[in-house]
Every structure is written in C-alpha cells, then in structure tokens.
Design a protein that fits this description.
The chain has 297 residues and is an alpha/beta fold. The protein has two domains: 181 residues, Rossmann fold (3-Layer(aba) Sandwich); 94 residues, Rossmann fold (3-Layer(aba) Sandwich). Helix content is 33%, strand content 16%. The strands form five sheets. Strands 1-2-3 form a three-stranded parallel sheet, covered by helices on one side. Helix 1 links the parallel strand 1 and strand 2. Bound molecules: zinc ion (ZN). The site of zinc ion has 5 residues, from helix 5.
Length: 297
C-alpha cells in the first residue's frame, strides 16, 4: 500500500504550537513510511476565515522545514465536487432536509443526538434548511493507532449535517470527499476530532469510499488546563526559533532526540526524527505546554 498523509488546517488564525504538533506528527509518520505528505487548506467557512492566515500557515510550515508534495488543495475551490457527492447521497436517499433551530433542538433534548423530527415533519420547500445525512449503523468500531479501540456512542452519534442552512458545505462531507479524492491512506490529527470520525466512517460506508487508518494525537493544553487553540488565542509560532521549537515538539510527542539536536539544521533534525519515529511512544494524555512555549519568550 502506498502511504499518503495530509495536514489540513483551517485558516482561522496563524499556526500555533498545538497545530504544529499535528503537522509534525503527520509529516514524520508519512516520511517514516516513505509516504507522500499533502497540505489541504480547509477554508469552507469564509465568514470565519482570517485574511492572510492561509498564507501565514503555509509560510510557517516551510520555515519549519515541513515541505509538502504537490499543489495545496483549497476546499473553497471544490464546491462542484462536493455538490456531486451530495447528489450521490440524495440519489441513494441517505439525506433529508432539516430546518430545526438550535433552540428547538434544545427544547426537544435533541442536541446530543438528533431525533429525526424532520423526517416526519419535512420543512416546506421554500424554507431555508440544512441537509442531514442518516447515521444508519448501529455502531462503528475502529482501532486508532494511538488511542486504541474506539466505538461509536448511540447516545451521541446521530444524523449529522452535511450541508448547512447558510448554503455552506459542512466539514464532515468535505473532509470525507477530499480524503477519498486525494487517496489519503493515513490520518494523523488532534484527538479533539476523534468523535467526528464516526460520522466520517458512516459517510465512507454510504459512498463506498476507502476508510483511512486513524491516529489521534493528544491535545496540547495550557498549564491552566485550557486547550491550545485559535479560539482561545494560542500565540503564533511564526517567529519562534525553529530548532528549539521542533525539539520541544518532538519531546512532547514522546520521541527520541539525536545527540546535540540544537546544533542541527531543520532538515537533518527532521530526517533523523522521521527515521526514528515511534508512533507507539506518543502519549495518550493531554500534553501540558508551559508558558515559555505559549508566549515565545
Ligand atoms: Zn430538523
């Protein structure tokens, strides 16, 4: 099997240390297996996009020596393809319109798992609505390369949105469509996306797509226990010194280091790290990031 991996950031802010861990882990896993490593910008949501963030992310990856193969894929350019996938789901009667508001879902206690209200009460044609895919499988089970055996939860894994009321495609549909189109065989990403995997397995099954192998790395959290994310303004790593930052990222990922790593070039360090990559050494528990890495001081 040929290995194809990917890093797929959303351009909602510059690269922070948590996203560097995901980029580095997916890069090293691909290189260790002589695979290809692709980059996809998941800019499905123009209102949330920060101008210049996509370019800044790509520039930072290059600064850190994480060079990708081929053209960068931008999801915003792929609406025709996503429409064809949605057409396939419609054709197979696997989707239905839904106009439930969040407050209506809350009232019916259907936030965690959708209650299929709109199957029996379809919205009128002219009403703005989302499109939901049916979650038909009783359960899904997969073996995550880091987290072990994971099973879907019937209390939370219900019918999910694939096309939004605001006429934007939902993450679940686009990510499954693009992973298939790009021949992605291995996905290495943050554990915050683990629960999303079950809807993706469901779509892959409906559409006859290949299911990649998954590895979910632990979250980076601050010493206050907060997730390091763009939403809580994790600082950019753009101007941090490259080698010390890579060395601390490798350490957080439980990897061994060559002698005197700080004296190496990023190319030599990454080559060494990819040869000595051990996915089984990645910790399962959240990685606590200390203030120095948060602020770059
Ligand atoms: Zn509904």
């Amino acid at each position: 099997m040929t290995y194809t991996g990917r890093f797929a950031p959303s351009p909602t802010g510059p690269l922070h240390f948590g996203s560097l861990l995901a980029a580095l882990a997916s890069y090293l896993d691909a290189k260790h297996q002589q695979g290809r490593w692709l980059v996809r910008i998941e800019n499905l949501d123009p209102p949330r996009e920060v101008p210049g963030a996509a370019d800044s992310i790509l520039r930072t990856l290059e600064t850190f020596g994480l060079h990708w193969q081929g053209e960068v894929l931008y999801q915003i350019d792929r609406y025709d393809y996503y429409h064809s996938i949605l057409g396939q789901l419609k054709h197979k009667d696997l989707v239905y319109p839904c106009n439930c508001s969040r407050s209506a879902l809350k009232q019916r206690h259907a936030i965690d798992r959708y209650d299929r209200y709109c199957v029996s009460h379809p919205p009128k044609q002219h009403e703005p609505h989302a499109i939901r895919a049916r979650f038909l499988s009783e359960k899904h089970c997969f073996t995550d390369r880091i987290q072990g055996i994971k099973k879907s939860n019937p209390d939370t894994n219900g019918d999910f949105i694939v096309f939004r009321r605001d006429q934007l495609f939902a993450y679940q549909l686009a990510v499954v469509a693009d992973d298939e189109a790009q021949g992605i065989s291995h996905i290495v990403r943050g554990v915050d996306l683990l629960q999303e995997t079950f809807a993706q397995l469901e779509l892959q099954k409906h559409l006859g797509f290949t299911t990649p192998q998954y590895a979910h790395i632990p979250l980076a959290i601050t010493t206050q226990g907060q997730k390091l994310s763009k939403q809580n303004l994790a600082p950019s790593i753009e101007h941090l010194p490259v080698i010390p930052t890579l060395v601390s990222a490798l350490t957080f990922l439980g990897q061994n280091l060559p002698p005197e790593p700080l004296s190496l070039s990023s190319e030599t360090l990454l080559n060494w790290a990819s040869q000595h990559w051990r996915v089984e050494q990645i910790p399962i528990d959240p990685i606590m990031i200390h203030t120095a890495t948060q602020t770059g001081s």
